[in-house]
Amino acid sequence: MNTLYSKNLPTLAQDITKSVSLALAEDIDSGDITAQLIPAEQTAEATIITRENCIFCGKAWVKEVFRQLDPQVQIIWHVEDGQEAAANSTLFTLKGSARSLLTGERTALNFVQTLSGTATISRHYASQVAHTKVKLLDTRKTIPGLRTAQKYAVACGGCHNHRIGLYDAFLIKENHIAASGGIAKAVAAARIIASGKPVEVEVETFAEFDQALEAKADIIMLDNFSINDMKQAVAINAGRAKLEASGNINEQTLARTAETGVDFISIGGLTKHCQAIDLSMRLNSFF
User: Fold this and answer.
1) % pLDDT > 90, the chain
2) Alpha-carbon distance 63 to 269, whole Å?
3) Which strand (E) or helix (H) includes residue 254?
4) What is the tally of structural domains in the chain?
5) Which of 82, 146, 161, 76 is nearest to 111 (CA)?
6) Do residues 106 and 164 both lie within one domain?
7) 165 assigned to some structural domain
8) If you average pLDDT over every residue of the chain, what do you get?
9) Intra-chain end-to-end CA distance of the chain, in Å
10) According to the model, what pLDDT value does residue 285 have?
């Protein structure tokens, strides 16, 4: 797992069970009335294909959908999480009750299209900076309820996880600094509150940057610094803290930002600008 702060996602398995349960409940509610058109004893085979090139992600969510819905459904995998899948290729095959396959179709595909979309854009961004040592980080700008799922997908795409939530690392931003009485006071308080947690400080000026260095922050986030200013910050820092670039970084500026020598670049678009992958399920045989 490509995590920066948390070494793993300890709640991922529990979150999968919970999110799948909620997704099935909102879709099925009192029952799938359309599936009742099909005889209860009818069995079938279905293939799920991707209509476009993608990085596949979502295997555990598909397995959990049918574990909760109908454990008798058999899943045959043709691709693994993190692998490339070409347009019109088969991702997995389902065998079992025709009713169960159709009832679980949309829930399973919703997870796969979203997580594969996240993994695909993450792989795209990672490829742009592969010539550097920088690590691309996600943010907390995730779909509500799918935090750990999307962060898992980001890692499958070759990028890295920033903090999982508000509990596993300090990120002292402008409002925290103002309310705490300054950068030095905020960092000092953080060391007392949770001495084992990483402390990151967001800065907008070189004056604040100097204060964060003096306070011995573990990581300093350079918020909306120009390319030249980032280069200057890297030189001043001289390895004392890890440096993270953030703010208005896009495909046009990504490589140049990475080449400044910063350690990390955080990109909210990895999770909030992902486009769902176009998937399709077809029943192709009955028995």
Assistant:
1) 92
2) 28
3) helix 251-258
4) 2
5) 146
6) no
7) yes
8) 95
9) 41
10) 78
The one-letter amino acid code at 59 reads: K
Q: Which two tokens stand for residue 19?
A: 């999110």
User: Which of 140, 173, 231, 272 is flagged as catalytic?
Assistant: 173
Angle between helices 98-128 and 12-28 (to 10 degrees): 130
To the query of whether residue 106 is one of the catalytic residues in this protein, the response is yes
Catalytic residue among 95, 141, 191, 231: 141
HSE-CB for 227 with a 13 A CA cutoff: 11
Please say whether the beta carbons of 230 and 250 come within 8 A: no
Residue 251 banded pLDDT, cuts 50, 70, 90: confident
- Single out the catalytic residue among 64, 200, 202, 263: 202
Cα–Cα–Cα angle for 38, 43, 47, nearest 5°? Answer: 105
Query: Which whole number is the average pLDDT over 143-168?
Result: 95
Reduce the DSSP state of residue 155 to 3 states and report it.
helix
Q: Is the pLDDT of residue 154 over 60?
A: yes
In this structure, what CATH number is given to the domain that contains residue 38?
3.90.1170.20
